[in-house]
Amino acid sequence: MKKHLFIIFILLSSFMFSQSNWQKFKKLSPSKRMWVLFHPFKAKKALLISNEANKVADSIKKSPLLDGDAAGGQVDAFRHAYWMARLHQEIGKSAARSLGKAHEKENYKTYKERKLEDGVVPDKISSTMDLFNNEVGLSLTQKNKRSSKKGLIYKVINAIQAGKLKIIKKNGNGQFLTCDNTLILKESLKGKWINNKCLVSSNYKP
């Protein structure tokens, strides 16, 4: 029975995707492919919103609105919260949350393969930060309730500046710190999924 259901999902998805999108599908991590198979009618919207969130975050990174840090900083927090807020509007909270979790599973796979995400290898605390910020993003919107994208951007920025999201603690030079302000050497982080980085409120200033 399970095998038959899986084949049905594959066939359904193949009808929904163009040849180019099917190639993209095959390149997804197992966790994201499974998400697509269980949400075939929401997958295209999710892809468009994911691309939108990355573009908006790239624009915010170049502006003075946040700290410009896309790897554990405010821009990183913004990307996840905005992504989830938009997904909640378009595909619902449950589907959005499960996609966010699938992304974090992919990050663990990236860590195991030592690939780079935003210039650094993902680790457990980054995943914890992302999942926390995802939940904040989900709380900022409602399904089918439209608001301007500009308004939502500032809503997320205001939440960051109010300290409602999480970022990873760093000093003024962008170096990671422990919760008691001890400098973490890069060498000590290599190959470690669990380390002594510290999560702080998103309005933290070194």
Helical proportion, percent range: 55-70%
Apparent shape:
globular
Give the tally of β-strands.
2
Question: How big a fraction of the residues is strand?
Answer: under 5%
Low-confidence stretches: 1-12
User: How many individual helices?
Assistant: 8
What is the typical, i.e. mean, pLDDT?
86
Order of helices and strands: HHHHHHHHEE
Give the end-to-end Cα distance, rounded to a whole number of Å.
56 Å
In order across it, which strands form the biggest sheet? Answer: 1-2
Radius of gyration: 18 Å
Number of domains: 2
Sheet having the most strands: 2 strands, antiparallel
Strand pairing plus helix content: what structural class? mainly alpha
Structure description:
This protein is an all-alpha fold and 206 residues long. The protein has 2 domains: 1-29, no CATH class; 42-201, no CATH class. 58% of the residues lie in helices and 3% in strands. The chain contains 8 helices and 2 strands, in the order ααααααααββ. Strands 1-2 form a two-stranded antiparallel ribbon. α4 packs antiparallel against α5 (74-91), α5 (74-91) packs across α6 (93-113) and α5 (74-91) crosses α8. It is globular, with a radius of gyration of 18 Å. The termini are far apart.
